[in-house]
UniProtKB/TrEMBL annotation:
SMART domains: AAA (SM00382). SUPFAM superfamilies: P-loop containing nucleoside triphosphate hydrolases (SSF52540). It comes from Mediterraneibacter hominis. It comes from the Bacteria. This is ABC transporter ATP-binding protein. Residues 5-227 form the ABC transporter domain.
Length: 232
């Protein structure tokens, strides 16, 4: 099966600054991958390139054998770092909007998850707490039957107990053979659901390894390895 995402010599400059530099990376299907790195290492830049929101300065990024564009947006479900939803809307109206907008939106899955999370679908988004808004957005994104889910800092505002539910239920209840790419600093919370990790630093690839390899060969958790590699 073709990889879901491939980068070859991917470079992105902002002016003279290299946010990503000659990145070569392949993401296989059916995996949950952590995109990890210190602040400013290029995670969001890579995510925006994958979603066609930025264009490469050099090199290529290919999604399911296509350049980012209209066709790849159909198969990527993307949670950006900042909300794009109209906060005046009620949750139930946003659901209707998603049903209209995305052919691959699974309303029954979304409704079941919102019920489990005890989120009132009559509520307007602006009346919900920060963490609850994040849950709603994550439910919306994970309820599409996508090939690639890209989540940029998905659970920063969610309390630790709800994080467990979200990680166990939402992130594992998605389309079979789909890939989930998660950028986060909450490594210890998330590492148990990850299959592999990609470490970025100064826009370059520092490590691309499975979580099992890190644990068995280095005898460390991903969180411990991250702290060691990126010690200030
Ligand atoms: N529009 C822009 N113009 C100029 N520089 C930018 C722009 N966007 C990002 N950068 C710079 O590019 C580098 C990579 O930024 P990016 O947002 O990709 O990092 P990140 O790994 O997602 O960081 P964080 O963990 O803090 O979210 C940073 O040094 C940032 O200041």
């Amino acid at each position: 099966m073709k990889p879901i995402l491939e980068c070859q010599g991917l470079t992105k400059k902002y002016g003279n600054f290299f946010a990503l530099s000659n990145l070569n990376l392949t993401l296989e299907r059916g995996q949950i991958i952590g995109l990890l790195g210190p602040n400013g290492s290029g995670k969001t830049t890579l995510i925006k390139l994958a979603n066609g929101l930025l264009t490469p300065t050099d090199g290529h990024i290919i999604i399911n054998s296509m350049s980012p564009g209209v066709e790849t947006k159909k198969i990527i479900s993307y949670l950006p770092e900042r909300s794009y939803l109209n906060t005046h809307m009620r949750v139930e109206d946003i659901l209707t909007y998603y049903v209209d907008f995305y052919e691959n939106f699974n309303l029954s899955r979304a409704t079941a998850m919102l019920k489990d999370l005890e989120i009132d679908t009559h509520a307007r988004l602006r009346s919900l707490s920060k963490g609850t808004k994040e849950k709603v957005q994550l439910v919306l994104v994970m309820s599409r039957d996508a090939d690639l889910y890209i989540l940029d800092e998905p659970i920063g505002g969610v309390d630790p107990a709800a994080r467990d539910y979200i990680l166990q239920t939402i992130l594992t209840n998605y389309t079979e053979n789909a890939t989930v790419l998660i950028s986060t600093h909450l490594i210890s919370d998330i590492e148990n659901v990850l299959d592999s990790v990609v470490f970025l630093q100064y826009g370059q690839l520092v490590l691309n390894a499975t979580v099992d390899e890190i644990r068995s060969q280095r005898g460390k958790s991903v969180d411990a390895l991250f702290r060691e590699v990126f010690r200030c």
